[in-house]
Known about the structure:
The chain has helices spanning about 15-20, 45-65, 75-80, 85-100, 115-120; strands at about 25-30, 35-40, 70, 125. With about 130 residues, the protein is α+β, with helices and mostly antiparallel strands. It folds into 2 domains: about 5-65, no CATH class; about 70-125, DNA polymerase, domain 1. A hairpin with a 2-residue loop joins strand 1 and strand 2 (about 35-40).
Amino acid sequence: MCRAATRRTQSFGVANDLVRRVLVAGFALSLGGVAMTAQAAQCYADPVLAYEAMIAERVQAQKVAARININTATAAQFATLQGVGVKTAEEIVLYREMFGEFARIEDLMKVRGVGKATLEKNRARLAVLD
């Protein structure tokens, strides 16, 4: 276990119980009521850096979770995208039902109402998963 991670640091307002064992693989950590498991290959000498690394991992995990799988998404999920209304969302689902799953994100441009601009605005939120 990394001893530095158990050090108390008040200068940045990081509570001791949040820093303790922050990046020791396999330990569950409760942060803001959300339990998460910190997986790390290294131990940080500075608890503030360990805390920042943990937050960065959490943000990245939330971004991945917010992605829409275009092969399983509902019309309601497609309608949450920028520039995609209810009618276009229904067209995407209908196209997928008629022609099968999309092989890549760019295949969405085959649907009437989805152009390059709409695709580029939403590319970060889209995924093609099995």
